[in-house]
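Reference record:
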Amino acid sequence: MARYRGPKTKIARRFNEPIFGPSKALQKKSYPPGQHGRNRRRKQSEYAIQLGEKQKAKYTYGVLEKQFANLFDKASRKSGITGEILLQLLESRLDNTIFRLGIAPTRRAARQLVLHKHIVVNGTIVNVPSFSLRVGDMISVRERSKSLEIVTNSLVANGAKRFPWLEWDGSEMTGKVVALPQRDEIPENINEQLIVELYSK
């Protein structure tokens, strides 16, 4: 299973954002990690800023370098605004959609649910977190997995997150992709234009 296995708090502190979920460390140390984190005021180059934005998007969605490059290539070949299409492709991943529906508390937890075959798409068990969903697809929790503590606790805590591009039936624990998310419906603090500029060099 290809995924980032390095330190999470360090990355979150680098960007000063809870990329991997809520973190107490960000409240205590709102400066970059490292010996000179407090005093680091060096001006970043244009390339460094663009690269940082790409890295932030990768870590946020749990995508590795090659996967991300492939998604950008796919987005660039579609008609429309490349940056927005890229975010739509990232949002349409199965693990992210499960997180958005509130079935799992984090994307990492959603990934685990998929890998352990707790998720069904259109009546078929899918164990590929990067599975790309389309408009009309139905996502549900497998019947014998509906009582899992991580699922029930997450749904109680999140009350089934509400996003205009998703529908949720709490009684059946089933969601549906009703549209592709528009940019203003994606809450992530990512400047996708910087990513496009980086890949355009």
The longest strand covers residues 138-141. Residues 93-179 form a domain with the Structural Genomics Hypothetical 15.5 Kd Protein In mrcA-pckA Intergenic Region; Chain A fold (CATH 3.10.290.10).
